[in-house]
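Design job #97: recover the sequence.
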């Protein structure tokens, strides 16, 4: 750990929130001299204080310990760059359109890498008037099912949660070309072009 880098980051984050050392110290029930010591790089926060400090400064513990926050380039909201993250423990779904540090259930998640659909993982897409009706023959058992479908194009993302032991169905308005992403709980993320 680089206490100097950590201290500089704590200082910048505290200043950005318009907090004094005393205000941060009072919230944490410690001395403002302790905050001063950290900011001068003459010591690092104790592990037992990191969670509270991260909540006050609104930054992850990981960022505090690295001593830096890397900002993303402005991506202009292009949804085609969307990344999907699924927690292997609780199946929580998260998305990001740029680089992100995503964690759930105490573990850092990596973005899913989509594969092109195959015979076992394919969606049936039928046009009905102004809509597209999506179904699949994929099993929808508790231990193996498609948990979500997402329609993605440059300015739009529509996500439909799917549930085990229900028929897989998704209906959305016909729009320009895009991609359908779908996540199989056993085999990962797939995509299919429209």
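Job complete. Output follows.
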């Amino acid at each position: 750990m680089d206490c100097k880098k950590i201290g500089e980051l704590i200082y910048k984050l505290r200043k950005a929130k318009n907090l004094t050392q005393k205000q941060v110290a009072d919230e944490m029930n410690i001395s403002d001299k302790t905050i001063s010591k950290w900011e001068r790089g003459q010591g690092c926060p104790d592990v037992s204080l990191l969670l509270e400090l991260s909540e006050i400064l609104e930054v992850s513990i990981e960022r505090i310990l690295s001593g830096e926050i890397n900002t993303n380039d402005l991506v202009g909201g292009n949804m085609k760059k969307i990344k999907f993250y699924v927690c292997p423990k609780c199946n929580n779904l998260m998305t990001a359109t740029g680089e992100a540090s995503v964690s759930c259930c105490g573990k850092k998640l990596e973005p899913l890498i989509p594969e092109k659909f195959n015979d076992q993982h394919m969606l049936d897409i039928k046009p009905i008037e102004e809509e597209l009706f999506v179904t699949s023959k994929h099993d929808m058992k508790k231990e193996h099912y498609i948990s979500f479908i997402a329609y993605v194009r440059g300015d739009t993302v529509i996500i439909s949660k799917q549930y085990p032991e229900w028929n897989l169905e998704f209906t959305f308005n016909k729009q320009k070309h895009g991609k359908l992403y779908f996540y199989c709980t056993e085999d990962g993320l797939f995509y299919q072009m429209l």
